[in-house]
Design a protein that fits this description.
By secondary structure, the chain is α+β, with helices and mostly antiparallel strands. The protein is built from 8 helices and 5 strands, in the order H-E-E-H-E-H-H-H-H-H-E-E-H. InterPro entries: Thioredoxin-like_fold (IPR012336), Thioredoxin-like_sf (IPR036249).
Length: 236
């Protein structure tokens, strides 16, 4: 019985193809994952930079900032919306300091009535105050979001009494009696209906929705994306 010695080189050659296959598979997998990530990032970026053919008209809309600012930021907001409260209290101040107060951006508020009668009443009040004094509108806007309950926000809280209470304290001061009459007569309903038509025409489905020079931002709380779009528009 003969014992034939195995050739080490021969054994090595037999094992190498398997190792090469594993390595090749790993490389292919890594490349596929990388392509998936890049494609996803590209898709998200494209989504963020989708520009409407013509941005909403801001004629007779509340505007804060320089009239000739290069960038127009539109907020579609609802006083009953807790996400709008968060955006107003945490994100708007940052943008105001960096872009609005420096004359680079002007901000427009468009009423979005996603919470029924209370949303409409708040919008009617805002428009009535705006018709009296444009600067007073922004004080009222801030006061309304501050007054929104931190919890149980779906409970009734936007009432005529609450609106008049807030209006009494804002500056520049307004004629609160006239505001009361305007609310009773629904005097500013035509302006609110204009906002409603903009919401419909531009397929607004969430609040807040942020639009920058006609570019609808997918995530209103992605400050990095918002600033990136503003900076690109400023440099355009």
């Amino acid at each position: 019985m003969s014992n034939k010695k195995k050739n080490p080189k021969s054994t090595l050659k037999k094992k190498n193809p398997g190792k090469a296959l594993v390595l090749y598979t790993a490389v292919i997998l890594i490349l596929l994952i990388a392509l998936f990530i890049l494609n996803r990032a590209g898709t998200e970026n494209k989504q963020d930079l989708t520009r409407v053919a013509e941005q909403p008209s801001i004629v007779n809309q509340p505007v804060i900032g320089k009239e000739d600012a290069k960038v127009t930021l539109i907020e579609f907001g609802d006083y009953k919306c807790p996400s709008c409260k968060k955006w107003s209290q945490e994100y708007y101040p940052l943008l105001k300091t960096q872009y609005i107060d420096t004359g680079k951006v002007k901000l427009v508020f468009i009423n979005t009535l996603f919470h029924g009668n209370e949303s409409e009443l708040g919008a009617l009040a805002g428009e009535a105050i705006y018709s009296q004094n444009k600067d007073s509108f922004w004080a009222f806007n801030e006061a309304m979001f501050n007054a929104q309950p931190a919890v149980n926000h779906d409970n009734l809280w936007i009432t005529e009494e609450k609106i008049l209470e807030l209006a009494e304290a804002i500056t520049p001061r307004i004629d609160v009696q006239k505001l009361k009459e305007d609310l009773s007569n629904r005097e500013t309903l035509p302006q609110v209906e204009i906002d409603n038509s903009l919401v419909t025409n531009y397929s607004i489905t969430q609040t807040p929705t942020i639009m920058i020079n006609g570019i609808k931002i997918a995530n209103p709380f992605d400050m990095e994306s918002i600033k990136s779009v503003i900076d690109k528009e400023l440099g355009a």
